[in-house]
């Protein structure tokens, strides 16, 4: 048993190091061999994938294997795939792709009408010991040099109401593994609200302690300074479930880098990490 656990731990660390190196790259590519390993569900209408946290969703100028949609088209042979419920590059987890117009539009309309449900797993800085429901208005941050940055603000014509629920699963050693649900779908909502409650996401370059880390990353990529400041190479946010409120629901196990953080930095066992995911 000890020998098995030793080799299992070695494999975990090997995969973890590979994942970290991919996050550090400006334009990492998907290999045709690994893409099928990410598939959570597939039929004639749908392709549901557990997206890694180093991959963009939308096609890029670097070829089909540089994005989730591009790799999905190469894998399936489809002329077009319809993305429903996209995720930011640094957010991992469930992404759904329609293989035809009818399936794609059905899911895209469901997302627009709030007929779908998504939950996230995240690791926060700080120990959150009880459920936290946050309701604020969110709008552009005019004081930030980062154009896309949002902030909690007053109600106005330009701001939008945002509602987020943080449910702590386990807290230890100054961090909390939480399950997050959103009642609205605003830009950067989870990250803004996590910062608002003084528990920013681990690894968040923009909504952490210093937004200049984001500018540094955009300009120079991953640097030794970033490695010395950030506890993770990306924001610790993972879409664990996604599906129809009254229909099919798809689940993705937590990403390897987040799992390793829970083990190495929070002193959780692998069994504990698996158990709290539900």
Notes on the protein architecture:
Helices cover 30% and strands 27% of the residues. By secondary structure, it is α+β, with helices and mostly antiparallel strands. The chain has one domain (2-276): Pseudouridine synthase (2-Layer Sandwich), CATH 3.30.2350. Strands 1, 2, 3, 4, 5, 6, 7, 8, 9, 10 and 11 form an eleven-stranded mixed β-sheet that branches. It is globular. The two termini are 26 Å apart. Mean pLDDT is 90; it is low at 1-8.
Offer a few descriptive terms:
278 residues; alpha+beta; Pseudouridine synthase; 11-stranded mixed beta sheet; 11 strands
Summarize the helices and strands and which ones pair or pack:
Layout: H1 2-24, E1 39-42, E2 46-51, H2 68-76, E3 82-84, E4 92-98, H3 101-112, E5 116-125, E6 132-140, E7 150-153, E8 160-172, E9 175-182, H4 189-196, H5 212-220, H6 224-229, E10 237-244, E11 249-251, H7 256-264, H8 270-276
Parallel strand pairs: 4-10
Antiparallel strand pairs: 1-2, 2-4, 3-4, 5-9, 5-10, 6-7, 6-8, 8-9, 10-11
């Amino acid at each position: 048993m000890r020998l098995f656990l030793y080799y299992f731990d070695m494999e975990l660390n090997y995969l973890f190091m590979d994942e970290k190196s991919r996050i550090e790259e400006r334009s990492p590519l998907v290999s045709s061999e690994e893409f099928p390993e990410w598939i959570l569900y597939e039929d004639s209408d749908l392709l549901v994938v557990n997206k890694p946290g180093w991959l963009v969703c939308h096609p890029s100028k670097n070829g089909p294997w540089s994005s989730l949609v591009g790799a999905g088209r190469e894998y399936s042979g489809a002329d077009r795939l319809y993305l429903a419920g996209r995720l930011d590059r640094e957010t991992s987890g469930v992404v759904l792709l329609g293989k035809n117009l009818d399936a794609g539009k059905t899911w895209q309309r469901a997302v627009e009408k709030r007929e779908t449900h998504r939950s996230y797993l995240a690791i926060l800085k700080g120990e959150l010991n009880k459920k936290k429901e946050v309701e604020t208005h969110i709008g552009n941050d005019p004081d930030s040099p980062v154009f896309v940055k949002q902030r909690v603000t007053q109600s106005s014509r330009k701001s939008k109401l945002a509602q987020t629920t943080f449910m702590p699963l386990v807290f230890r050693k100054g961090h909390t593994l939480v399950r997050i649900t959103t009642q609205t779908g605003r830009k950067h909502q989870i990250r803004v609200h996590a910062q608002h409650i003084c528990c920013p996401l681990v690894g968040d370059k923009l909504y952490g302690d210093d937004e200049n880390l984001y500018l540094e990353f955009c300009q120079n990529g991953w640097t030794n300074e970033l490695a010395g400041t950030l506890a993770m190479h990306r924001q610790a946010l993972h879409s664990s479930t996604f599906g129809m409120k009254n229909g099919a629901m798809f689940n993705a196990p937590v990403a390897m880098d987040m799992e390793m953080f829970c083990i190495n930095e929070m002193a959780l066992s692998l069994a504990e990490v698996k158990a709290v995911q539900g």
